[in-house]
């Protein structure tokens, strides 16, 4: 169980919520915002957000996502980031910093993954866990990988978003030739083999 | 050859440079730009003047020197005629003068008498009456025409008598015993004051005693009849020259108006002759002069070029009348102008009130048409700016504001009659600032084209530093207030929303602070935003400006320091309040006595300690001070 995220001081600076006309300042402003978003997500272990900035999934099962303080709002100073600026911030995260990605590029409205930990880092964590637990070469289900109780899954990986896990497997481990995905009859992922 | 220059008489002039008219005299016509000629020659120094035609005189008033003015009695005039202008020669009126001199005057005055055959009234006839050419005279009593033969006889009789004696048969045959007042014709003895015989109407010899007569004549001669030396008339050539040997003068109408003059002159002359006739008694009491029918305005004069010309002339005449009348009014106004100016400046002190400034800039005393006008104006404006507008380092004023303020200043200092400057003149003057190296500099914002003026010595390209400093001050003040509110534990809706966070500054706040116009602030803020030193917060309640916190590292927290300052200030305030309460208590004993041992104004030791204590406890201590209110 974690404590509430303390926003940086700049979060209470009213001009942060208005897109600055000066390009240099706007750049700094975006950096501030992306930093806030990443820190916020890392703090609550949130791996995906909706396009409006509402948390979609957190590894921390004890969290009630609805009660978390919103990222883009500040009730104290009565400021909210407007939709347009939100889009700018998200685009900045995705395209400039590569710290986020659409969950489904064909359907952006589904939301985005926030890579406060990069895919490679995730894959390393996963690989080292499987390696340490001596399960290399065995076929494991998704459930066994992340959600199985009393299996010694490190906190980092526990309750990792299934979609993100598949993305990590597909985009990193399979490309490296270190994993295989086995499909069942229904066309769903039946198991994963990491070698 | 006798000189006829003595027909000109001097005149009296009043202070407003108009001739003083004699009794029963009135103006008929006035015309400007007229020159005088005696005979063929110009009269020197009388070539540019006004001519007043009155019912008694023709008065020439010299425009250049009023002392050169002179007049001509209409009594001395026989007739007048127009000489049309030709090429460069102006139209003139030739005025024939009666041949003066004793002899001719007597002859012209002499009259022969013929007796009407019907009513036996003694009619008079001029001595030189021309029987061949003139129609025969009628008896003034019964109106029967005289008989030609009878008249000839009378004339011939007189002629022969004249030849014989060399003197007039009538006047020059006085009998020794005849009294002066006895009628030479009918021997009736008249009253000495009569000029004509009461019975037969014959002209009587003057009955005035000789001494009196001499006296009058000497007076008259000294007043009017003096020769030319009184008025000092000089001709172009020393000799007077007249065509046909008859004396005349000419009026040269350099600007026209001769026909009207001629018309009125003839009327006046007729009037005088009529009066003369009346005085001679040659007219019946009920006799009326045959009035020449008033000329109808000749509107339908047929077609052709002549008709058109006539119409044009009439049009010009009407225009002339209208113009003259209207210009009269204008002249009246101009006449009153000085008075109006005085009046308006007399109100100035009420407008100004006591707000008379220490610096007084002398008004600009240069004509607008002068080539130096704009330079002088530029200097004057610059002086005004330096003295009144650009008093601070951060002072800036827009050209629009300057225009309004400068003109208002002119009115305030010089009264309502001041000529204000036009925007065009202002712009010209502003352009000259650099050229004249004046202490004021003008600057144009590229984006909006706004022109602002600032002091050259303190000129900076942007006013960024002022704005940044101001925002910083505001923020510091806000923090201080916030801490103060916290320390004092005040909590209500207003305070909570007011001190929730620093709301930034608006353009109007900045404008107020520096006395800039809104436009200037906007321009400057935009520059700052472009430079990245100021960031903006645009929300539903407006646009607010902040110092840039994105790039600058978060400054260290001054909260503790602020708390200390707040404590100190609160303590000071408290001391002031309690000491004033104490004095109030001492002066009026009506205050409730809180306790015999309680001393106002004495700060308890716990206060001193409390400065270092945490604020929460501090505020509770303050609350303990009952009866005190903090604002």
Keyphrases for this structure?
heterodimer; A: 195 residues; alpha+beta; Arc Repressor Mutant, subunit A; 4-stranded antiparallel β-sheet; 3-stranded antiparallel β-sheet; 5 helices; elongated; B: 631 residues; PH-domain like; 9-stranded antiparallel β-sheet; Vacuolar protein-sorting-associated protein 36 (chain B); ubiquitin binding (chain B); metal-binding (chain B); protein transport (chain B); zinc ion binding (chain B)
Structure description:
The complex is a heterodimer of chains A (195) and B (631). Chain A is built from five helices and nine strands. Chain A is an alpha+beta fold and 195 residues long. In chain A, the strands form three sheets. Chain A has a four-stranded antiparallel beta sheet with strand order 2-1-6-5. In chain A, strands 7-9-8 form a three-stranded antiparallel beta sheet. In chain A, α3 (119-132) crosses α5 (162-176). Chain A is elongated, with a radius of gyration of 19 Å. The two termini of chain A are 34 Å apart. In chain A, 29% of the residues are buried. The mean pLDDT of chain A is 85. Chain B is an alpha+beta fold and 631 residues long. In chain B, 41% of the residues lie in helices and 14% in strands. Chain B contains 15 helices and 16 strands. Chain B has helices spanning 102-109, 148-165, 210-225, 258-280, 304-352, 373-389, 399-414, 423-435, 464-488, 493-498, 507-514, 518-531, 559-587, 605-610, 615-624; strands at 8-10, 27-38, 41-42, 49-54, 57-62, 70-73, 77-83, 92-97, 111-115, 122-126, 248-253, 396-398, 440-444, 451-455, 534-539, 542-547. The longest helix of chain B is centred in the middle third of the chain and has 49 residues, at 304-352. Residues 101-108, 165-176, 219-229 and 604-619 of chain B have low confidence and may be disordered. The chains are: A alpha+beta (195), B alpha+beta (631). Chains A and B meet through α1 of A and α12 and β15 of B. Chain A: Belongs to the VPS25 family. Chain A: One of its GO terms (biological process) is protein transport to vacuole involved in ubiquitin-dependent protein catabolic process via the multivesicular body sorting pathway.
């Amino acid at each position: 169980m974690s404590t509430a995220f303390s926003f940086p001081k700049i979060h209470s600076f009213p001009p942060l919520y208005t897109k600055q006309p000066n390009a240099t300042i706007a750049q700094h402003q975006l950096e501030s915002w992306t930093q806030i978003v990443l820190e916020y997500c890392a703090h609550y272990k949130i791996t995906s957000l909706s396009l409006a900035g509402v948390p979609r999934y957190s590894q921390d099962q004890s969290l009630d996502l609805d009660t978390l303080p919103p990222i883009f709002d500040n009730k104290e100073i009565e400021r909210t980031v407007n939709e347009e600026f939100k889009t700018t911030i998200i685009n900045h995260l995705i395209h400039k910093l590569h710290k986020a990605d659409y969950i489904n590029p064909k359907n952006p409205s589904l939301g985005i993954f926030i890579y406060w930990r990069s895919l490679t880092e995730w894959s390393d964590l996963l690989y080292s866990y499987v390696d340490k637990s001596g399960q290399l070469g065995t076929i494991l289900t998704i459930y066994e990988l992340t959600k199985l109780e009393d299996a010694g899954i490190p906190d980092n990986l526990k309750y990792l978003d299934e979609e993100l896990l598949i993305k990590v497997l597909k985009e990193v481990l399979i490309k490296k030739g270190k994993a295989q995905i086995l499909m069942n009859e229904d066309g769903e992922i039946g198991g994963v083999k990491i070698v | 050859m006798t000189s006829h220059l003595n027909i000109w008489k001097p005149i009296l002039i009043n202070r407003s440079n108009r001739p003083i008219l004699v009794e029963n005299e009135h103006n008929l016509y006035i015309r400007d730009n007229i020159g005088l000629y005696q005979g063929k020659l110009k009269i020197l120094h009388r070539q540019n003047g006004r001519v007043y035609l009155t019912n008694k005189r023709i008065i020439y008033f010299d425009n250049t020197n009023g002392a050169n003015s002179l007049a001509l009695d209409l009594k001395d005039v026989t007739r007048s005629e127009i000489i049309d202008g030709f090429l460069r020669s102006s139209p003139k009126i030739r005025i024939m003068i009666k041949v003066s001199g004793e002899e001719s005057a007597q002859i012209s005055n002499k009259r022969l008498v013929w007796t009407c055959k019907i009513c036996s009234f003694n009619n008079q006839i001029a001595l030189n009456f021309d029987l061949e050419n003139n129609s025969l005279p009628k008896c003034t009593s019964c109106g029967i025409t005289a008989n030609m033969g009878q008249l000839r006889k009378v004339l011939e009789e007189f002629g022969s008598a004249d030849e014989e004696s060399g003197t007039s048969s009538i006047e020059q045959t006085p009998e020794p015993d005849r009294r002066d007042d006895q009628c030479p014709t009918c021997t009736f003895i008249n009253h000495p004051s009569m000029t004509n015989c009461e019975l037969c109407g014959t002209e009587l010899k003057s009955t005035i005693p000789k001494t009196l007569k001499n006296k009058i004549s000497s007076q008259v001669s000294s007043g009017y009849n003096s020769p030319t030396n009184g008025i000092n008339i000089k001709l172009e050539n020393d000799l007077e020259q007249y065509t046909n040997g008859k004396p005349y003068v000419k009026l040269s109408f350099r600007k026209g108006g001769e026909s009207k003059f001629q018309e009125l002159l003839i009327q006046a002359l007729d009037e005088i002759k009529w009066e003369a006739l009346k005085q001679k008694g040659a007219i019946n009491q009920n006799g009326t002069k045959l009035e020449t029918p008033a000329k109808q305005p000749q509107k339908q004069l047929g077609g052709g070029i002549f008709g058109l010309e006539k119409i044009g002339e009439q049009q010009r005449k009407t225009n002339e009348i209208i113009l003259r009348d209207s210009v009269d009014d204008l002249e009246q106004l101009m006449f009153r102008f000085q008075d109006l100016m005085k009046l308006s400046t007399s109100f100035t002190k009420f407008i100004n009130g006591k707000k008379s400034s220490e610096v007084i800039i002398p008004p600009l005393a240069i004509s607008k048409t002068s080539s130096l006008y704009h330079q002088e104006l530029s200097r004057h404006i610059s002086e005004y700016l330096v003295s009144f507008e650009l008093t601070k380092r951060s002072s800036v004023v827009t050209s629009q504001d300057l225009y309004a303020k400068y003109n208002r200043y002119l009115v305030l200092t010089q009264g309502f009659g001041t000529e204000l400057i036009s925007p065009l003149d202002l712009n010209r003057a502003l352009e000259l600032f650099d050229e004249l190296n004046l202490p004021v500099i003008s600057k144009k914002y590229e984006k909006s084209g706004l022109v602002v003026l600032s002091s050259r010595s303190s000129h900076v390209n942007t006013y960024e530093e002022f704005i940044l400093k101001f925002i910083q001050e505001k923020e510091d003040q806000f923090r201080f207030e916030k801490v103060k509110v916290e320390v004092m534990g005040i909590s209500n809706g207003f305070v909570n929303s007011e001190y929730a966070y620093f709301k930034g500054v608006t353009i109007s706040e900045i404008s107020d602070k520096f006395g800039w116009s809104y436009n200037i602030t906007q321009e400057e803020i935009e520059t700052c935003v472009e430079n990245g030193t100021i960031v903006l917060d645009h929300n539903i309640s407006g646009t607010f400006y902040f110092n840039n916190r994105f790039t600058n590292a978060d400054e260290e927290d001054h909260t503790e320091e602020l708390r200390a300052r707040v404590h100190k200030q609160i303590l000071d305030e408290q001391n002031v309040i309690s000491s004033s309460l104490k004095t109030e208590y001492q002066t009026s004993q009506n205050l409730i006595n809180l306790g015999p041992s309680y001393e106002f104004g004495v700060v308890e030791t716990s206060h001193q300690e409390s400065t270092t204590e945490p604020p929460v406890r501090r505020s509770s201590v303050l609350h303990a001070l009952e009866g005190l209110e903090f604002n």
